[in-house]
Amino acid sequence: MSPTKDRLNELKQVQNDDEVEITIKSTESKANDIDQTLQKAEIIRRNIETIKNNTEKASFILKNNVLKVSKNQQDELDSLIRTNTSTAHKINSILKEFEHELNKIKNKNTAEFRIKRVQYTTLKKLFQEVLKESSVTLEYHRNHRKELLKKSLQTAQKDITDEELECLLDQNQLDVFTDNHLMTTEQVRQQLSDIEARHKELLEVERQLNEVLDLFLKIATLVEQQQESVDRVEYHAETATDFIEHGTKDLEKGLQKKQKYSRRRIYIILISIIIILIIVLILIIV
Question: What InterPro entries does its record include (predicted)?
Fold first, then answer.
């Protein structure tokens, strides 16, 4: 073999090797992206499980201590609720990153996009569910604290009605009792101290509940918007697939017709040649 041909074969082999290497790197990159997605999803799942477990613990403490929550139990409740709130914000942040990654994928019909989309939508729904459970527990906690506060107020001011209490609580005007009451006895002072403490507890629970509800509403809106987006993507993907399938079928039909027409032309030409030969032979014989 000549040196020129040898060099040409070497160049072809190098080109083929480069193409194989690029394909392998591209495949490895996609596999790494999917692995990172699954790892991120696992982190979110663990955090969601943390919120769920903490909510169950808080619910257990509240439902088994209806009349009075001890200081240690209240500290534990506060710790559980704070952990849930910070964890929820962390999950929300990771889900936003997830959504950003999904939006960056141009080809919505790839395995990578489908895997990420399934993980994203599933995790958001799970997150929405635990937030709902957490808000229900916090609402129970809020109502419980409210009832305790009402009882303390009624003890200090027996002639106040439930409606007036609700109005004062809603308008945060409990200083009507704590500032103006004649603190004539130690018992009254203790009652007013209890009122102030329970009011502070109630305000803190209200704040925590509003924070969780705000997150819950944001995630609920995102879930709804994402579902609409997914439906649109699936519709366009199905439409494109149908278009390609119909186009392929039409192309196949066109090729079949072309081949059929070509064969027909050949047959006509052959028959024409045979007829001409027969006529020539007849003329020669005559």
Answer: SNARE, Syntaxin, Syntaxin_N, T_SNARE_dom
